[in-house]
Amino acid sequence: VLAGDAAGPSRHDPKSALMLLTRLLRSKVNAAVVIEYAEMLFPADGHTPDDRTMLVMAMGWGRDPQIMAAGNPVILVTENLGDLAPGLRSASGRFEALEIPLPGEAVRLDYIRWFFSQSEYRETLNCQVSDELLAAQTSMLGLVHIEDIFLHAIAAGALTLEMVKQRKAEIVSSEFEDVLEMREPRYGYAA
To answer: What is the pLDDT of residue 89?
Structure first.
């Protein structure tokens, strides 16, 4: 749909893509629009004319009677709400922010067990960390981050406690831009 032809919109032109999405949202077709990395299309610090044009188009989706009558939802996905244009975050933007919390230890443990049950990695990985300790060590991380740790371990050929700690520190540091410092608890992780 977004590729177009020689006379149509380019697949590399976000404004053309948003125009096509607007037509889709106004149509009688049941559809949902999910835009991942929405901060790339609608940045908080967007000052260029193109940034402003795209922001106005997106804000219009929340006020367009045809779109509201069609009932087609628009979901903007971003890791950090502050990176998204303030106009979309305001009450007049008609978008609603839904925060998805980081998984708790039980969810992380279930994911770790599921990951190892779905693959041969436990045997070939030289896993030196128990599932329970791995779940405890990965607090403050999402499931995608835990998978990242696994992928690094696969590349390295072993999953060690030191590797988990090091990779977690790198992930948290990059997520929080060096605002936090990772420290080991004095008396362990059992509370």
So the answer is: 80
Residues of the chain with pLDDT under 70: 1-11, 93, 119, 176-191
Pairing type for strands 74-76 and 33-35 reads parallel
CA 180 – CA 172 distance, rounded (Å): 8
The DSSP bridge partners found for residue 52 are none
Vertex 31, ends 26 and 32: CA angle to 5°? Answer: 105
**CB-based contacts of 78, cutoff 8 Å, min separation 6:** 37, 38, 39, 84
Q: At what angle do helices 14-26 and 49-61 cross, to 10 degrees?
A: 10
Q: Which two tokens stand for residue 164?
A: 């988990």
Q: How far is CA 101 from CA 1, 17, 69, 104, in A?
A: 34, 31, 31, 9
Q: Which two tokens stand for residue 177?
A: 């831009």
What per-residue confidence (pLDDT) applies to 112? 93
- pLDDT tens-digit profile of 18-64? 999 999 999 888 888 999 989 999 999 988 888 889 999 999 888 88
Structure tokens at 7: 């006379």
Q: Can you read off the two tokens belonging to residue 83?
A: 């990176």
Distance separating alpha carbons of residues 105 and 97, to the nearest angstrom: 25
